[in-house]
Amino acid sequence: MITFDTSALLDAFNQLTDKITDAVGEPTVRAAGFAGADVFRDEAKRNAMAHQRTGALARSIVVKRLVEESDGTRQAYLVTVRGGKPGVKGGAFYWRFVEFGTAHSPAQPFLRPAYESKKQAAADAVMRTLAQKIDERLGGQ
Description:
mainly alpha
């Protein structure tokens, strides 16, 4: 009868999985999530510039981390427009009118098309950043 002692192999495997688990911590997940949101934000800004002369709308498009919906293993980000108030500099209160239209002007959406056209690119950015951060944390092992 042949017997194998797999305890050393199992210990090595457990050590490796512990290192990977540590490498995929909250900072890694945050960086990966932001990389994906960044893709959507940049495309929304490009789309908004097609509808605006001043660029105020594009400058108002931001990424927000949703703290209440995020934890160590899951990160939630929102690409939105800093609305502001009418007549106050630094916001684009009218963004809803552009995105959804009004009774007197047709919709010229810029957010939804950004999402639809860049879903795969955002997923790729998340995976690329995740792989890069894990590689950095593991030291290329």
